[in-house]
Amino acid sequence: MLELIVDACSTYSWVDADILKQLGIESRAVWKLKSIDGRMVERGIGDAYMECLGEVGPSVVVFAEKEDGKVLGLHALEGMRLEVAPATGELRKAEAGLALRSRPAQIAQRRGA
Fold first, then answer.
1. Are the C-beta atoms of 56 and 69 separated by less than 8 Å?
2. pTM score, whole prediction
3. Which of 5, 30, 71, 113 is the most exposed place for a label (fewest CB within 10 A)?
């Protein structure tokens, strides 16, 4: 079991690189990211399935180094259909996912039609 601080302001989850490697998760690219303390850094990223509150979902994970914060980010929370309650800050299962309605003409325009 891995314990992370929930940070809905962090796009991705930052997990200790050594732990990710021990779990067999491989870095598939290096991305430029802004760290929690505002530094611009380059870190490996990979893909992992995460579990929390009985929900499982896919997420991009950052291979965090020693000086980086270790957090469960928004991408993972949404992948597991979890949310942070605004009034209490409590992590909970989301009632429903957000679905946006698009007009077919807008989709066709984006494809170059």
1. no
2. 0.79
3. 113
